[in-house]
Each structure stands twice: as structure tokens, then as C-alpha cells.
Amino acid sequence: MSIPQSGGGPIERHEQLAEYLADGCKPKEDWRIGTEHEKFGYCKDTLKPLPYEGTRSIQAVLEGLRDRFGWSPVLEGGHIIGLEKDGANVSLEPGGALELSGAPLEDPSDLRRGERPPPRGEGCGRPNRGWFHRVGGRTDLDP
User: Fold this and answer.
1) Close Cβ partners of 80 (under 8 Å, ≥ 6 residues apart)
2) Alpha-carbon distance 67 to 107, whole Å?
3) 3-class secondary structure, 123
């Protein structure tokens, strides 16, 4: 049994693949660059992942960013799951990570204007790189 094909059937020559990819490209004047920072928050005293709710939580970090920096909340079922401001957003990712996606910029030198990862909350930490819940496990994450 074969998988249904779309887009004109199987590619038989490398020129077909090159043409297909080229057709999906934006004109150079529409090119943009952006940044992404993804951080896993943790409780400094236990080194366990931040829960969603509580005084030291993902919810508290998102509400703090909203209140301190004027971000607009993104809600799902009445719960804050992200933020938006000036073309940038902060989103709650699987496993409790928070990701800052910077606004699309025309010039790479504009990246110096200060897109920064989310700040730490009271009693919360966020590693700078290469760390994933060394003490907590999958069962410590909020469902």
C-alpha cells in the first residue's frame, strides 16, 4: 500500500526538489531575523521544576512579566499560558519551559536592542544553558 502523494508525485530529478524549495522562498525584501530563548525554571532550594500554580510558579513568572513590563496575557481556559507585546511573545512550552520569541527584525544589528530571556521570580532560577531538571523527573512536572 502506498502513501498518497501530493504536490505532483514523487521527485525524480534534483531540479524538481530545487524548484519546489525555491517556490517556497520569500523575496529578499521580506526576510526577517528573530531570536528565541527557551528556559526551564526551577525552585532554587529544591532544584525541582516550577509547578504551574503557587507563589513560586510558572503562573507567577508570567503574571510578573505581564505586570512589570506591560505584556498582554494569552489565556486558555482562564489560565495564563503566554504573553504578547510588540510582535514578540512568551509561550509556555512542553515540560514547563518558557520561550521568548523576539519580534521579527529587518536587520541583524537590531538584535542588540535588548531581547532578553524571562527574568527569574522570587526563589526561582533559570539555567543559562545545557540543563534539564537534574533533580526532578517527568513525574514532578505538572500534568
Assistant:
1) 59, 62, 63, 66, 73, 74
2) 30
3) coil
Residue-wise pLDDT for 25-35, tens only, equals 999 899 888 88
DSSP type of residue 133: -
The CA-atom distances, in angstroms, between 24 and each of 11, 17, 18, 20, 35 are: 16, 11, 10, 7, 22
pTM over 0.85: no
What is the average pLDDT value for the chain, to the nearest integer?
79
Instruction: Provide the 10 A C-beta neighbour count for residue 44.
Output: 11
Chain centroid to CA 124:
19
Whether residue 116 contacts residue 65, with contact meaning beta carbons closer than 8 Å, is answered with: no
The CA distance from 100 to 142, in Å, is 21
Per the listing, cell 510558572 goes with: 58
CA distance 112 to 106: 13
Tens of pLDDT along 47-57? 888 899 999 99
